[in-house]
């Protein structure tokens, strides 16, 4: 049996064992929008308004500015994605621009924080999906955790078996959440056109309220940038994009501006019907007042939105694990591809298993709140990599080139966003998070730098390879089973 499988693997290798370019322009747009639009825009967008001291003009300006920063970052990533169209996103770019150690530090931290984020999304989905059946009573924790695990593994299996099916699911759920946002946006436009005095009065003197100070503006800015999180997701699938030189910049320039416009329209719609003091579940309150007969659509839309964001996040996390393994920063098995579908099934199993661990004692998820600064640290390092590569590899083929001052602005912005919460709200947990990142050296030095290796792991890899029916991708390490 083993010999038959090895013969099959060799035959498949002759047919090019590698990720297939099956993600087109519309799929890419769906993944970016699906990654950005999560539960936040439905549940608590008034956080920006609160920190803006209820100044509507300032709040809408911050939403716009947050979107423009996200667009600048995505344009920097578009240059890197077209010049280096490999799986792994920031990891691959940092490794090329800054070296192996910063890249390993990134994947070490991401292996902890990104699955925890997926676990949190799965639990939030389970909460919204089960709560209607329990009315005012809280749903049992065991039920929510079981449903969260079921959703995680369903999406993990889906992404591990078929890229086309995962992209189809992403497109469907992105369309559903955009329909929900359109309902809210159109509802607000109708109210404004209808000329309700209380609705129009809020916009007549938009900047008339108290102006927030610098720290309050910065806090509101954090809230806005958090709502736009996910714009970096496309580069994780660059290796699977059809015609990446064309589609990556085009996808970015379509998806991110579309989200900016929708976010502004949705916020304006909220302000037409929800008072400034109502800061929680604002979309639900809006629905109760504007479309009371079908208000149930909004809680359903929140669950749909979370599900779509979770699918996109799991897809990209699998590609990060795959890229890290190909570079020797994770076990070699993780970079192998299923011989039937050419999908990174071991990478999906690896990342889904870690996320499942976070769901069981869900208190662990709270620890990741103090790793928020690490996301912007890695964005800053990625944009710094772009600058380094511009000067170190001037002849590198770049189908798209961003205006050079933009990555400098992004580097400055990123390091401000890293330092600001630590300086303004010092907490011992930030020290623990930083020490955890430095702890990557304990693993990097013996296993990566000095290449310490245990022979018994080869046998384990061989048996798992046969069990999972996977084979090394072209260009990866040699098949240890041969």
Automatic annotation (TrEMBL):
Q: Name one Pfam family in it.
A: AA_permease_2
UniProt-annotated location(s): Apical cell membrane
Q: Which InterPro entries match?
A: AA/rel_permease1, AminoAcid_Transporter
Which parts of the chain span the membrane according to its record?
23-44, 56-78, 172-193, 250-270, 290-310, 345-367, 373-391, 403-424, 430-450
Record keywords, A-Z: Cell membrane, Disulfide bond, Membrane, Transmembrane, Transmembrane helix, Transport
Which GO cellular component terms are attached?
Answer: apical plasma membrane
GO MF, any single term: L-amino acid transmembrane transporter activity
Membrane topology listed for this record = Multi-pass membrane protein
Family the UniProt entry places it in: Belongs to the amino acid-polyamine-organocation (APC) superfamily.
Protein name as catalogued = Solute carrier family 7 member 13
């Amino acid at each position: 049996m083993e010999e038959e499988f090895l013969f099959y693997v060799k035959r498949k290798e002759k047919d090019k064992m590698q990720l297939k370019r099956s993600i087109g322009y519309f799929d890419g747009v769906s993944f970016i929008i699906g990654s950005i639009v999560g539960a936040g825009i439905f549940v608590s967008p008034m956080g920006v308004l609160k920190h803006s001291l209820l100044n509507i003009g300032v709040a809408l300006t911050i939403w716009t500015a947050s979107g423009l920063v996200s667009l600048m970052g995505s344009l920097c990533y578009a240059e890197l994605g077209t010049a280096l169209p490999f799986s792994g996103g920031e990891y691959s770019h940092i490794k090329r621009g800054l070296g192996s150690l910063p890249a390993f530090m990134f994947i070490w931290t991401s292996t902890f924080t990104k699955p925890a984020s997926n676990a949190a999304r799965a639990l939030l989905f389970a909460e919204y999906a089960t709560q209607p059946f329990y009315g005012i009573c809280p749903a049992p924790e065991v039920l929510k955790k079981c449903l969260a695990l079921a959703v995680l593994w369903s999406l993990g299996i889906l992404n591990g078996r078929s890229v086309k099916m995962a992209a189809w699911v992403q497109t469907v759920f992105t369309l559903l959440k955009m329909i929900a946002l359109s309902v809210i946006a159109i509802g607000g436009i109708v109210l404004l056109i209808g000329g309700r005095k209380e609705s129009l009065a809020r916009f007549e003197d938009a900047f008339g309220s108290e102006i927030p100070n610098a720290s309050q503006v910065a806090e509101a800015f954090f809230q806005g940038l958090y709502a736009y999180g996910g714009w970096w997701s496309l580069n994780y699938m660059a290796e699977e994009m059809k015609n990446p030189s064309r589609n990556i910049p085009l996808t970015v320039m379509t998806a991110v501006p579309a989200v900016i416009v929708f976010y502004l329209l949705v916020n304006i719609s909220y302000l037409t019907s929800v008072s400034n003091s109502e800061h929680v579940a604002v979309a639900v309150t809006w629905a109760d007042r504007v479309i009371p007969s079908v208000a149930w659509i909004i809680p359903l839309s929140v669950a749909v939105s979370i599900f779509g964001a979770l699918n996109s996040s799991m897809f990209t996390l699998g590609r990060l694990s795959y890229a890290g393994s190909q570079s020797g920063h994770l076990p070699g098995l993780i970079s192998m591809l299923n011989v039937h579908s050419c999908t990174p099934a071991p990478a999906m199993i690896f990342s889904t298993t870690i996320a499942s661990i976070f769901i069981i004692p869900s208190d662990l998820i709270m620890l990741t709140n103090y790793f928020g600064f690490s996301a912007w640290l890695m964005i800053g390092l990625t944009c710094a990599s772009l600058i380094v590569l511009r000067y170190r590899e001037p002849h590198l083929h770049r189908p798209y080139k961003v205006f050079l001052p933009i990555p400098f602005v992004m580097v400055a912005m990123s390091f401000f966003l890293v330092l600001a919460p630590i300086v303004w709200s010092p907490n011992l947990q930030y020290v623990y998070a930083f020490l955890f990142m430095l702890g990557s050296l304990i693993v990097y030095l013996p296993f990566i730098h000095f290449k310490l290796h245990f022979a018994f792991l080869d046998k384990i890899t061989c048996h798992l390879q046969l069990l999972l029916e996977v084979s090394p991708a072209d260009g990866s390490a040699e098949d240890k089973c041969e």
